[in-house]
TrEMBL record:
Gene3D superfamilies: tm_1862 like domain. The keyword RNA-binding does not apply. Residues 728-750 have a biased composition (Basic residues). HAMAP family: UPF0313. This is Radical SAM core domain-containing protein. It comes from Kiloniella litopenaei.
Length: 750
């Protein structure tokens, strides 16, 4: 039976895979399609179910929409004929909530949700967030830290003999030994810590369909070792496999002494790729040696192309985790099939009138593609979704827009976004499939756009035009982040975008201005931003529209020094930007930037002990807060730390009252170190609060007393997890716009 099922699965030797909708349906298909996947026994009774075949446990509220992982996996398995129940955000103190739907016939599927639970719960300063966009009414604290581990433990307590399958972004990005920012240490693979039977990583449609049919046919998940996109635990290497040390496959590293490295590589190239495993340093080794950790991170990223990746093996104690090759990307018909499933396109009725911020954000938006070939080192999209762009067909996308128009309550005619991980990679691909299968580049666009990459925007332009022509559609906005270094290749696309799809501002992500920082991020130089801005402004002027760019920036990224942040702040002021929301770099699991942060080495190149590059990294809270403060140079609360830093950098010339200065020399009462409780706070001789009183004024606000709280004195707020939002006031094609002051712009002492 095992061999028969296996033959129906993926073709191991090639890059093709069985269509996920071609499997013979499970017998339970007779029950039909559920309005919502059930969350209670009462709902199961109404559906005529006596049990669930699969129960998905998730850290998010259940929204039946293809932007939510539990909905995709649940509806996909339902389409295969399985009965799927949902346990969303259960109480985790004991196992009772995990028994709510009874014992699953096949397995529990456990996911932390659409975000890693630690990033969801904590800020870059390791402070607890008090809100959660994936929870009704934005309530925080409704999921445990490291949710996948905790949920798996409770599932095991509920029914000891039921297999546990873990997946989703949290499991995917913690599949190997990984640095954990919140505990400041390297942790074991989440598969080991959760004691689950198998881990599915990446977009796991192929893996979950194949796995579930094989479990239904009698196989145990822990014994299924040949599905791509999975991680299992093994005691020994199977017969017939070649195991190569990771230092054999990467040129110019000196981590291990190999007598004849050329001969070792020759043998590796001659070995059967489908029977070759790459040995990563063990969990114990990467804890003890940061250089090995950095090189292991580099190799994991090099082995991410589904066309040429090899199996990877990493020892944890006396066991190996066996990381199978990445999943083969979905074809366009398969993508259409996934997004065309029967979703209710609404939160489960159990939530009543409660607000769900994550749902409100995407309810009128359309996902047109997956994946990203940008390879930004701080981002984990590539390691989860892959570099190959998986696009839906025009027909499927246009049909979804019509469904939103006809079926989603509250629709007023505006599609709020039509994009994906990026706005403008739709249908872009390598020009030669053979080249793509052997490519091992970390990015298709850095340091330069690959000559083999087709950057045509024509398909996207045609899609925009057809979507706008749908009856009842008044406006289509583009809110997904734009990859502007590709957009400049198509003036026609920029014109189309500006003329029809930007309604005031457009988000883009230069991330920094300084090459030292940008080279560690794998982002283009600021000159590319200038070129895009020029084209954007020209298109806006021609269209008769006043539009603004909203650039995102990252503070405290590895490789970014105090001087770099100072230069970025100078650039911001010169260009008239004041950042509303800023956030420091968060070392997310598995990202290359995280390896830089932890090891202080550069995994974008082979690691060398003797002459390798050392990456200066802001780790202490004082320095990280300084970098964050540079992004909010205009906030008086930041002026004391900025003045100190500018003096230390030998740039006291930037302190003063003029336009050429970054921060003033004076400190308004009630701000920074001149407020109650602050060191050095001045008091009058009579004991009253405040030092020498004076008036301060702000452009556009008239004259105000310094101790009257003004908008410019507002504190930092936690912004998007990826960077900082800078609200610019630059006129298209011209100098930064300046508000006309309603009062005199001067300060008068009394």
């Amino acid at each position: 039976m095992k061999n028969e099922v296996r033959k129906k699965g993926e073709k191991e030797a090639g890059s093709e895979a069985k269509n996920i909708f071609s499997y013979r349906k499970y017998w339970a298909q007779r029950f039909g399609i559920a309005p919502f996947l059930p969350m209670s026994r009462e709902e199961m009774d109404l559906l005529g179910w006596d049990s669930c075949d699969v129960i998905i446990v998730t850290g998010d509220a259940y929204v039946d929409h293809p932007s939510f992982g539990m909905a995709i996996m649940g509806r996909l398995l339902e389409a295969q004929g399985f009965r799927v129940g949902i346990i969303a955000q259960p109480e985790w103190e004991n196992a009772e909530a995990f028994k709510a739907l009874g014992k699953p016939n096949l397995y529990y599927g456990v996911t932390g949700g659409n975000m890693d639970s630690m990033i969801n719960r904590y800020t870059a300063d390791r402070r607890v967030r008090h809100n959660d966009s994936y929870t009704p009414n934005d309530e925080g604290g409704k999921r445990p830290d490291r949710s996948v581990i905790v949920y798996s433990q409770r599932c095991r307590e509920a029914y000891k003999d039921v297999p546990i399958v873990i997946g989703g972004i949290e499991a995917s990005l913690r599949r190997t030994a990984h640095y954990d920012y919140w505990s400041d240490k390297v942790r074991r693979s989440v598969l080991i810590d959760s004691k689950a039977d198998i881990l599915l990583y990446g977009n796991a449609e192929r893996a979950i369909v194949d796995l579930t049919h094989r479990v239904a046919a009698g196989e145990a998940p822990k014994d299924i070792d040949d599905i791509r996109g999975t991680v299992i635990v093994r005691k020994e290497i199977p017969e017939g496999w070649t195991v190569a040390d990771m230092t054999d496959i990467d040129d110019d590293n000196d981590l291990h002494h190999i007598p004849d490295r050329a001969e070792a590589r020759k043998k590796l190239r001659a070995a059967d790729k489908d029977k070759t495993a790459v040995r990563l340093p063990s969990y114990e080794e990467v804890i003890a040696d940061k250089a090995l950790y950095a090189q292991a991170s580099r190799v994991v990223h090099l082995e991410s192309n589904a066309g040429n990746a090899r199996v990877m093996v990493q020892k944890h104690g006396d066991r190996d985790i066996w990381i199978n090759q990445p999943p083969i990307p979905l074809t366009t018909p398969e993508m259409d099939g996934v997004f065309d499933l029967t979703y209710a396109r609404a939160p489960h009725p159990v939530y009543g009138d409660a607000k769900l911020a994550a749902w409100d954000m995407i309810r009128f938006s359309v996902n047109i593609m997956r994946g990203c070939f940008g390879g930004c080192s701080f981002c984990s999209i590539t390691e989860h979704e892959g570099r190959v762009i998986q696009s839906r067909s025009e027909e499927s996308i246009l049909k979804e827009i019509e469904d939103i128009r006809d079926k989603v309550d509250g629709f007023t005619g505006q599609i709020t976004d039509m994009g994906g991980p990026t706005a403008n990679m739709y249908r872009m691909a390598c020009k030669d499939d053979k080249i793509q299968k052997v490519c091992r580049r970390l990015s298709c666009v850095y340091p330069d756009i690959c000559k083999n990459l087709d950057t045509s925007h024509e398909s996207l332009i045609q899609l925009y035009r057809k979507a706008r022509d749908i009856k009842g559609i008044k406006k289509i906005s583009i809110q997904s982040g734009l990859r502007y270094d590709i957009a400049v290749k198509s003036p026609t696309y920029i014109k189309e975008l500006v003329t029809h799809h930007v309604g005031g501002y457009l988000k883009i992500a230069p991330e920094h201005t300084e090459e030292r920082a940008l080279s560690k991020m794998m982002k283009p130089g600021i000159g590319t931003y200038d070129r895009f801005k020029s084209m954007f402004d020209a298109a806006a002027k021609k269209a008769g529209k006043e539009l603004y760019l909203i650039p995102y920036f990252i503070a405290a990224h590895p490789g970014c020094e105090d001087e770099d942040m100072m230069n970025l702040a100078i650039w911001l002021k010169q260009n008239g930007f004041r950042a509303d929301q800023v956030q420091n770099f968060i070392p997310s699991p598995m990202a290359l930037s995280t390896a830089m942060y932890h090891s202080e080495r550069n995994p974008l190149r082979p690691i060398r002990r003797s002459s390798g590059e050392i990456v200066q990294t802001a780790k202490g809270m004082k320095q990280r807060r300084l970098h964050k403060a540079f992004l909010r140079y205009h906030d008086p609360d930041n002026w004391p730390i900025l003045r100190e830093a500018l003096r230390n950098l030998g740039r006291a010339d930037l302190i003063g009252p003029g336009k050429k200065h970054l921060v003033p020399a004076h400190q308004p009462i009630g701000t920074g170190d001149n407020k109650p409780g602050a060191r050095g706070y001045a008091k009058k001789k009579d004991g009253s609060k405040g030092g020498k009183p004076f008036f301060t004024t702000h452009a556009g606000q008239g004259r105000r007393r310094a101790h009257d709280k003004g908008p410019s004195a507002s504190g930092n707020t936690d912004g998007p997890a990826r960077g900082a939002t800078a609200h610019g006031k630059a006129k298209p094609g011209g100098k930064p716009a300046r508000r006309k002051p309603t009062g005199q712009r001067r300060r008068t002492r009394t």
